Please model this.
Amino acid sequence: MAVKIDSDKCGHIDNCPVQGLCIKLCEQGAIIEEDGDVKIVPENCDDCDLCIQNCPNQAISKA
Amino acid sequence: MFNVERSGVELRKLAYKDDKCVGCGICTDVCPTSSLRLGPVVPIARGLIEMDLVSCNADSCVLCGLCSVACPFDALSLTIDGEDICEMGNYPNWETECVVNEEECIYCGRCYKVCPRDAIIFERTLPDRQELVRGEISIDKDECIYCSFCADLCPAEAITVENVPTSSVDVLNNNIEVDTSKCVFCGVCKRVCPQNAIKEVCSTCMLQDEIKVPEIVGDTFIAEGSCVNCSWCSEICPVDAITITKPFDGTLEVIENEAEEKICKGDACHACQDVCPCNAVEIVDGKAVTNLDFCNLCGACITACPQHIRVLNRTAMKLNNINSESWDEILNSLLGGK
Model:
């Protein structure tokens, strides 16, 4: 099922208060940094929802 | 660490100590003005964000002290004209307890090793090994060829051999010594010596009557301010020397809902394990399992779980001396399901 990121709300690492908290939180490698932005790798997502719960911009939701 | 301070007829000061806070959210649950906010406990617990677990809006805080009374971990304290309200007598106080009975303690040190908060101060003095054995040992240096067989095999590491000759006839740089404070007269050195250069006699069995039972002295002490009453120490103590009174009675369950896909993700998430101040959560077969023996029902894991499948039900609490009706109502809201 994975997650999706609302591009308008997302801080895109540079403007994220924690510089990509979702990337740091996800130990499954389902959210990675690519070309300076956040990228989702759906096949790695375990639907734990940690990223959804902790995103400081509430930019992440269920896909 | 924050301080909120205001002075009028009296000087009131609310002090927050982040090192004592476990991120349970009890203070935010009871704050009547919603001035306290719980931060992102999981990223903080994982060291991804450096900030206090709890923050306070000083503009709306009325310095009533409910949070400081409700906090079972002493992370918040309200002082009025310099005196902590918890020591005034007319405010509620926790009857939690963490005591080591010095008469019973045998100074094994297990409690000190398992304490998840490093709250136990432990030291002990063991007797000299020499006092527990009897025997004699000597090495004939004229016979010794400094092969080091004895030193390499000595289980007590009591033999030191120096063997750094500068020529084939150099005997000055050779030396062998036995440290009799370490030797237990086991005889391994004597048996392995190719030169029969070691004389060793063990008389420990023969003279056992003169060897007194050693007195082991020490000190085991729980620093009350750091203890979260998890009970690891009292559960592991082999002589039941530790009394722990937890702040709450009750249960904590994981209730999954497969239809709504609310299921524990175990190793993929382990948020509950990371925030638990009690080290009470283990991931077993891909699921988080909480050992209630070690859980203090603080509820930190409830807010941390992104699946919202952890259900806490506190049935009683050790908070006594609640004299105000309105405070009683608010503080009792900590009981029941969450």
Notes: The longest helix of chain A spans residues 21-25.
